[in-house]
Predict the 3D structure of the following.
Amino acid sequence: MKKSPDYEKLKSRMESSKFSGSGFLGNDKRPVDEIIADDLHRIKINNIDKEDLVELLKIYYEKIKSEIGRRIDFNDHIHGEFFESMGRIPSPFIGDGVFEKGEAVITDKKSGEKFVITALAINLINKHNFFQGKGSRYRLDPVKLNELFDELEADDE
């Protein structure tokens, strides 16, 4: 099936560029709408509340950002660090605006997982259900993210 001109423009904005570096798709060859549909399906079958994920992303992003220059140990194997970057990055979705480039990185030494949270990534998930393509440095797998937050929230109790 032939894709619309608007879809083709979105796809080109998702690819590697001077603004987005390696792009938003990683090595994922699926169409953007298929990536979104797959993640929404995984959210549904795993009984994940996307709004809760977004809220926790915002909370942990701000918590880590507020400690810029210092590592935060959440428990014996999960820590967070904020890496500041100059400039802003535009959303690949027209009309969303531009976002600061800083990164809150949560590392789980036990699983080997790294979660790179950005202001843009939070917006992409919140407004467009787009967790980014597989292989993207900035992909936030919703199931793995939910598992991480379940563990962090259990530690807080």
